[in-house]
């Protein structure tokens, strides 16, 4: 029996007890003898119409950038894929369209930063960031929205983006709001240690805290991306532990915050769900609890949906959801999510199947428990 299945059963016992090209021009008729003597001062350029039509057709399906950067004196230019700008300056981006969606570093929303201003004008959307800091380093993107009433969707053919490094000699790493972060290592997907830099040319190395050593990046299993950080392509339990990054640039050096790497024991996928009732037979007036439990990835949320016999009669019930992280040995962790439906004063309309559907980003699982009236 697998360890996480055994764990699920033990936790159940414990609890019960206590997501167009141009057409080609026709050639003029040839004059007599023209094939014999070719004019030396005239160059003929073939114009294959089919090729032009194909090229025109291809360009019409390609995505076009709608973003421009506002420069000094009202000049505009298309921003490069990557920009390096000094801190403390203002930046203005515009995207053409009458309804524009934006994406930018999430912390600007988290702290409702007043330095950021987004407006929608008649012909374009506008993003202005004042007094930029190293923490503003990140991707800024926009897209045109196609709306039908209140429903809108992204127009993939009209987008724009640029990644901006706001360079600061005193802040080689992009500042974070914490001094310690947890990174989960899942064997089914890459893991990222997000020590991003503000200077793209900075030399960055990865280090383990204990035993103290530098972790070599081979460019295949472990790589570094200045926009993301260190990427473990195929994480294993051997990678768990505490690590940090070190950056060096122009004689200056800096150490990042620490990252606790925890290996995920439960594989990714639809919720692994089990259900059990406090009793499958209940007498009139009894109190009955039915528990739905999921063991899953530590950072994946689970949503529970219940269907029960007394629902159509608007029978009052109590539903409580909760979750917690449990450690399974050093560096191993699992998320246990629970939902309990409680029925007080059990009666005839309460007898039947109690159905629990648990869903996450990978799918959903439905289980049921039967309770009858004795």
Question: In terms of topology, how is this protein built?
Answer:
Blueprint: H1 3-17, H2 49-61, E1 64-65, E2 67-70, E3 76-77, E4 82-86, E5 91-96, E6 100-103, H3 107-110, E7 116-120, E8 124-129, E9 138-148, E10 151-167, E11 180-185, E12 191-193, E13 203-208, E14 213-215, E15 222-225, E16 229-232, E17 241-249, E18 252-255, E19 258-264, E20 272-277, E21 281-282, E22 288-296, E23 303-307, E24 318-327, E25 332-343, E26 352-360, E27 363-373
Parallel strand pairs: 1-10, 4-10, 11-19, 19-25, 21-27
Antiparallel strand pairs: 2-3, 2-5, 5-8, 6-9, 7-8, 9-10, 12-16, 13-14, 13-17, 15-16, 17-18, 17-19, 20-22, 22-25, 23-26, 24-25, 26-27
User: What is the approximate shape?
Assistant: globular
pLDDT < 50 runs, ≥5 residues: 19-44, 49-61
Overall number of strands = 27
**Mean pLDDT across all amino acids:** 82
**Largest sheet: number of strands, sense, barrel closure:** 10 strands, mixed
Distance from N terminus to C terminus (CA atoms, Å) equals 35 Å
Please trace the helix and strand order, writing H or E for each element.
HHEEEEEEHEEEEEEEEEEEEEEEEEEEEE
Q: How helical, in percent, are the residues?
A: under 10%
Strand proportion, as a percent range, falls in over 45%
Radius of gyration: 31 Å
Structure classification: mainly beta
